[in-house]
Amino acid sequence: MKGxxxxxxxxxxxxxxxxxxxxxxHGHVFLAHxxxxxxxxxxxxxxxxxxxxxxxxxxxxxxxxxxxxSSLFKQxxxxxxxxxxxxxxxxxxxxxxxxxxxxxxxxxxxxxRAIGSVILLIWALIFIRGSYNARSPIIRKYEITIPKQAxxxxxxxxxxxxxxxxxxxxxxxxxQKLVDRLTLMQPDLILLPGDVIDDDIRPFIRKRMGEVMRxxxxxLGVFAxxxxxxxxxxxxxxxVAEMNKIGIRVLxxxxxxxxxxxxxxxxxxxxxxxMSDGRMPLEQLVKGLDPNKPLIVMDHQPYHxxxxxxxxxxxxxxxxxxxxxxxxxxxxxxxxxxxxxxYLRKGDFHAIVSSGFGTWGPPxxxxxxxxxxxxxxxxxxxERKEGL
Length: 388
What we know:
There is one protein chain. This protein has helices at residues 2-35, 41-52, 54-61, 67-103, 108-135, 172-185, 202-206, 209-213, 228-233, 236-245, 282-285, 305-310, 330-336, and strands at residues 138-146, 155-160, 189-192, 222-224, 248-250, 254-258, 262-266, 295-298, 315-318, 342-346, 349-353, 371-379. It is α/β, with parallel strands linked by helices. Strand 6 and strand 7 (262-266) form a beta hairpin. Helix 1 (2-35) crosses helix 5 (108-135). It comes from Paenibacillus hexagrammi.
């Protein structure tokens, strides 16, 4: 197992090194032409490799580095992921342009400066727009009808916020936006379908994020499930304890009956499959429930929608995909999942996948938005017999 991990880690490190070397060489050429004799290559390469490897440095050194330094490295590294992605997309086009201009006998000093400036401008625009999309959440509303009765309820308003990713990059400021918008929405129920924290529990505790989350209130309660990042962090008992302190119940293969009218089932994340405690098959989890009562399932990763429908779920709420977060990654998530974002109906079954409220890696979104779901469920009303 250790040997396999070492080989995998070595391959990843090699790929990261090659990709960043390609990006770094372009920066070196551009600065050499731009700054001339003022350019010091050794200084550039030291700064470049620290920036490009900062996320890895934060991960490797989190147990020995002071918390502030490891957090700084993680923030720099998070932004660098975006630099890598768009570097791979833009720099081959820059190379092609440079080659064509070279064939046209344009002086290299001229076309290197021009192309480099255009690439930097595009990068800046991507970061500005991406930051706005990530930091300016919208409310996306869905209205559905379930052909079941829920007592005397005619409808239920549910707020859904997945993938908040609280940690080093997403903090109290963004979390407060969620609290403020849900306070205005006044939902009957709040559901958090996984990845509430961004793996490490320490920033959540150090920054007292629980004090902000405590403000999330709804008459029927606030419920969450585990996402893959809670498993990556490995602090699940501590995370569940923190949630309990602030009145948020984490459902781990559990079902709750709300007001004797409606079930909410919360699954452990798919990441737990193969672990000693595993996760319960959905069919087993909902076995014995009253099929006449509406059933909402929270499952972080939107796999096997057909199984959820067959198990009797009326609604399945998921996140995880971020809709790729940065275009054109949505082309990949769209192939991996039957529904990677939005709404899908199969007969009487409704599936909703959120692009998420927070971000993983760079606090940027392109082709997706930070969002809160406002889900209004209408129920079938009992028919009343008219007297003669």
